[in-house]
Every structure is written in C-alpha cells, then in structure tokens.
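Let us work through a complete example step by step.
Step 1: write down the sequence.
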Amino acid sequence: MTAATCRIERLLLPDALDSPDAGDFLEVGELCDALTLQTWGNLDRSTPPAARLQFWRDNAYRKILLFFVRQDGRMAARSWVRFGLQENLGSATVHVDVLEKFSRRGNRPGAAAPRGGAGGRGGPHHPAELHGAPRRLRPGRPRRKRQAGHRVGGTSR
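Step 2: predict the structure and record it as tokens.
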C-alpha cells in the first residue's frame, strides 16, 4: 500500500470572485459547503462566496491565515488561524475541518503535541446530538418559580 500524497497550501484571497486567480478560493468554498453539509445535514449554515471573501479578509481587529489540504489532488480539509490585533495579542485560534472520507488516516498520536511550552485545546463544532448528548433547552417550556422561603444549598432565599 502506498501512502497518499498530501499537500497543505495557504489560500490567497482573490481580488474578486471572477478574478483569474479565484480558482482555489472557489474550490475551498465548495469544500466549506461539503463540510457544512457533512456536519449539519443541510446548507442552512453555509456562507455565500461573496460573504466569505469579505469575512476572510484581514481587518483592523484580526488577521486570518487560511489553509487547505489536498490529498491526491482532491480537497480534503481546511484550516484557519485567527490572531487578534487589538486584544488577546498573546493567543490565536486554530480551526481545522476534515472531510469524513479523509479523516482517521495515518495520524500519529502525539505528532502535534506542543513543543516549547505552547498549549492547545480542541473540540467539536457540530450539534451535541451527534455525540448522544441531550438537548439542554426546551423552547416554550416555562420555568417553575421558587416559592418564598425555599432553601437552596442550606441558605434561605
């Protein structure tokens, strides 16, 4: 079995959607739609290309570095790193999404372990129901009011 060829590339934003150099941006947009569909089951949370182009540009408050991964020439994953420029100057947010058909292929545990004292956290960005967690809120269900003198934790309220 031969190892898959994987390339991580930086996404450079085109000047406009119809620019000659917009190919990678549009292809990453299709990847974003596929990831949204994979995660949520519909495209309700998908962003139109013009809005992506506007939102992904740097501004006075934050800088974003965008990346995409091709495996054997096919789009497999996207990632972004966001740095604050006004506050939280010592931290960054890293986000990675991988298409399901490309996930769990040859990742070595600990390969991305922090070196030199930097740490990281991660978590899923999809509905809790996918993990078997119950919904926390029930819309339209009124809360019970506490009666005067009800004791909570040993103190009177």
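Step 3: interpret the result. Helices lie at 23-40, 49-55.
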